[in-house]
Amino acid sequence: MRGRADLVRLRRVSEREIQATSPRELSDLPDDFWDQATVAEPSAKQPISLRVDTEVLQWFKTQGPRYQSRINAVLRSYMVHRRNTPRRKAG
């Protein structure tokens, strides 16, 4: 078993059980919602001191636990987008 998930138990869960226990906001997802999904493997984290606007930090905290992981996800999304976007030449 990798990580903390009980994969043996998860593989036995029926589609009916998944639907019965899923959050309400997931009930209307289109059939092709997960077609472009990719596995996001956790990577090593490096602790840093980062200064952000108070309002930004408070907003992330109000979204619930793991706010630091969400901040990291936003930064990663920005990085990936910029990495895949050709730079414009000045002039």
Describe this structure in words.
The protein is mostly helical. The chain has a domain at 49-91. It is 43% helix and 0% strand. The chain has helices at 7-12, 15-21, 54-62, 67-83. The chain is extended. The N and C termini lie far apart (55 Å).
Uncertain spans:
none
Largest sheet: none
Could you tell me the mean pLDDT? 87
Structural class by secondary-structure content: mainly alpha
Number of strands: 0
What is the H/E order? Answer: HHHH
What overall form do the CA principal axes indicate?
extended
Label this structure with key terms.
43% helix, 91 residues, mainly alpha, 4 helices
Give a concise summary.
By secondary structure, this protein is mainly α. Helices cover 43% and strands 0% of the residues. It contains 4 helices and no strands.
Topology:
Elements lengths: L6 H6 L2 H7 L32 H9 L4 H17 L8
Helix pairs in contact: 3-4
